[in-house]
Amino acid sequence: MNKIITIREASKDDKEEIVRLTKDWEDEHITYGFSGDDMSYFLNKKCYCALIGNQVIGFIVGEVSVTYKDYEFVKKNTPYFEIDELYIIPDERKKGYGSKLYEFTEQKLKEEKIKYIMLSSATKDVESVLNFYVKKERMNVHYVRLYKEIN
Fold it and tell me: Which of 106, 96, 101 is nearest to 139 (CA)?
């Protein structure tokens, strides 16, 4: 059965549901150092959500900033969107909803003349994140930080 998905800018009610979902995300322990949000987190942020029926099944949150220096790939004072969070509930993952949400967000940013999207990730599942952002969404890797505890 094909589910009908709606993607839109998050309303206040949507954001209240998203706050609850961030607590679920925290409980999954899939992201290093992640803790759930409260409503104040959404001040000055862009937030879009994916719904099946009336249920929020995912969201993307971030903010528009301006680069403070020249980078190899973008000049100083260029507006960009920094993705802070992108989450899909476990039962709805691997169904293309994250891509639909990302692509909706990208289209909205194009309409605002924002030319770049950037993000950092603290995921514990690096392979999935690279598959999603690099392979599916055609993002480029600029920086990788690795660590190892020496015992």
Answer: 106
* Per-residue pLDDT at 97: 96
Sequence letter at residue 28:
E
Question: Which CATH fold would you assign to the domain 5-136?
Answer: Aminopeptidase (3.40.630)
**100 contacts 50 by C-beta, under 8 angstroms:** yes
Task: Please report the pLDDT score of residue 41 as a whole number.
Answer: 95
d(CA 2, CA 83): 28
What radius of gyration do the chain's Cα atoms show? Answer: 16
Domain residues of the chain, as ranges? 5-136
Long-range contacts (CB closer than 8 Å, 24 or more residues apart) made by 111-115: 112/64, 113/79, 114/64, 114/79, 114/80, 114/81, 115/78, 115/79, 115/80
Low-confidence spans in the chain with pLDDT less than 70: 1-2
DSSP assignment letter at 31: B
CA distances from 109 to 3, 12, 46, 61 (A): 26, 21, 10, 13
pTM of the model: 0.89
Q: Dihedrals φ, ψ of 82, to 5°? A: -100, 115
Smallest Cα–Cα separation from 137: which of 119, 122, 114? 119
